[in-house]
Amino acid sequence: MAKFLHIADIHLGISRYRRFGTVDRTRDFFEAWSDCLQRYALAEEVDFVVIAGDFFDTRRVEPQAMDHAMFGLVKLKDAGIPVIVVEGNHDQREASHQFSWLRSLAKWGFIKLLEPFYEDDGTIRFDPWNDVTRKGSYIDIDTADGGFRIFGTTWYGTTVARQLPALVDAIQKHRSAERFSLMLLHTDVEGQLNRPIPALPVAKINELKSTVDYLALGHTHKNFEIDGWVYNPGSLEACNIDEYANIRGAYLVEVKDGKHEARLMRDYWQRPFVRVRFEVGGRTTPEELHEALFAQLHTEISSHDPDQEANLAPILEVTLTGQLGFKSSLLELNRLRDEIKEEFHPFLCIVRDLTVPVEYAVASGSTEHHSRADRERRVIESLIARDTRFQEYAGEMTEMMLEAKRLALAEEQPEKIVALIEQRLGAFSTKAIESGA
Ligand SMILES: [Mn+2]
After folding, report:
1. How far is the CA of 389 from the centre of ligand 1 (A)?
2. What mean pLDDT comes out for the span 306-334?
């Protein structure tokens, strides 16, 4: 029986803006990567490891992130376990550059970076791995229990559906009936997301089915599996708070007589996460709220002993909901957070305020008759309308803010979001000038 490990979205060197505020979580991503390898690659003595994109969080890799990467790659090399990698959107080389850290790691013999090549007329070409140039689009791995042929791709973004037929053609030319075939692809898949961005339709993926035995996906930071041949493990660690709710892990895959069995392994180190919801309703003073909140925290969570291992300290997220019984300016969130930290010693404390201030009670109205999106729109619009400078454009500005939020959720570049806001604000001020305001 042959065995391999399929991981994706390791995000080593996670960049500052995703580090949960002031706390540096870079090391957490290293711990997850290192522990996962120890348990499921080295201890399991797999024949190879595949990484389906986003090994690094950024294409400009920081020294610390490279150090973290090499710690694992050296161990795998010493154990004779090949590592096959494709680029993701986070670590893709710049189009105008010949060099990338992934290419360098391939050149130095620590990974096999697979990528398609292109003829002068734009036709896609799959070349076999060349051990001298250390380049290739597909590679053969032979194990005591049969051979594998692994095909690599690159990040296509929203053009993936259009690129797929050419990829299918190119791969079909190199299919080997005797070998178990794997393809590595970094893409979102339709129906697996809860955000409105373009993704690859399942019908398109099925065009690969006759050529590929195991489609190893990356990109979506939650686990899913389609029809017993398409697998997405999810990110190894949570890149943001919302990902804690997702099931994520690493696939340990066994192959025998052309049949495979993939198991999602989740029992490796990850930063513990604790979520508490507190309903503020009815408390008419900050002191009352404080007392009730701490009473609830004491029943729901235990304090982390600061002398104990730091790796066990959780991220603690406290969400305040409901209608505030006093002015929102009296709710001192930073002080609340500091006091929770003092008392419970979490690794990081996040206080989310979803309360409706007493002075805006009208805006939310009878909440149960409206969808969440509806309420959000109404609350934002009424907040904007309170400022007489923007009153007239409250509707348009609300749309702009919701659009900016949507782009942020789709992980668009901050520059793009700023450009959108500038452009829309420009349109408002032009209108304001025309109307003599
Ligand atoms: Mn990713």
Report:
1. 41
2. 87
